[in-house]
Amino acid sequence: MLEVLTYPPVLRGFLILMIAGVTFPITGVYLLRMNLLPLRFMLMHGAILGGAIALSFHLNAFWTTIGVNLILVWFMSHSARSLGTDTGFISTFIMVASIGLAFVFIYVYDVPSKDAMGLLWGSLYTLTNVELWGGIILACIILLLQIIKRRQLKAFFFDPSIAFTSGVNESAIYYTVILLTAFTVALAMRLIGALLLDAIIILPALIAILQSKSHGKVILLSCLWGGIFSFLGFFIALWLKIPTSSAIALLATLVFLFFYIMSKMRK
To answer: Is residue 139 part of a domain?
Structure first.
């Protein structure tokens, strides 16, 4: 089975999957701690819109998706400040509008159904070297943020108002997390698809939270589980001849259910 790694597209896909599996769950922890799951749904739909635009005009899906998500993040933040409303309301509106526009592009430009479904299921073996290096750089940024700003992040997650009085720039942390999430969702969509990206971002973080209350341990455990799911899911998919995204999602779901049931039994 290991001989498949001698093929450059497969090796490239495996490397970026492992890098993403070990680092992307950190952003999942941030989203859960900050109660920003509506943002994740908005970015997921934005990723589908970006992919639809890329397919319609023959653009690079990764960079187009990042561009679309950055625009949506800016619009959400600007609108929330201007209207004085919660970002959750704006993100819901953007989510609905994004998926509507995505299907308009797919229909008008007659995007093949196979390519359209690729937005939902991912395309691990078609990643370019640019996307590989983009993923490596993103992973390094996520790790550096966690290492350098770990105390500020811990204070911010505990209580933003207390963190602010202690000199923590809460706005900078908030928008940094949002931007990192936008990039993370864009790459995760390329790896395992928009519908299953929670398997590599959210589920490892949820499992870690079920296991520990310490922020530091949650970060380490989420990275560990993300790496395990990516590694095992990759080879299980080859063994069973199923999509890698499905193998990762099913494996992560089974592990989550196990720890969830165990936590209920302890209570």
So the answer is: yes
This prediction's pTM: 0.88
Q: 141: burial class by Cβ within 10 Å (0-12, 13-18, 19+)? A: middle
Q: How confident is the model at residue 1 (pLDDT cuts 50, 70, 90)?
A: low
Transcribe 107-172 into DSSP letters. HHTT--HHHHHHHHH--GGG--HHHHHHHHHHHHHHHHHHHHTHHHHHHHHH-HHHHHHTT--HHH
Separation of alpha carbons 77 and 91, rounded Å:
9
Domain that holds residue 96: 7-195
pLDDT at 208: 96
CATH number for the domain spanning 136: value is: 1.10.3470.10
| Number of domains forming the structure of the chain | 1
Per the domain annotation, does 76 fall within a domain?
A: yes
- Smallest CA-to-CA distance from 33 within 163, 189, 167 is with 163
* Residues 202, 35: Cα–Cα separation, whole Å: 12
157 assigned to some structural domain: yes
19 domain residue, yes or no = yes
Provide the token pair at 243: 């999509």
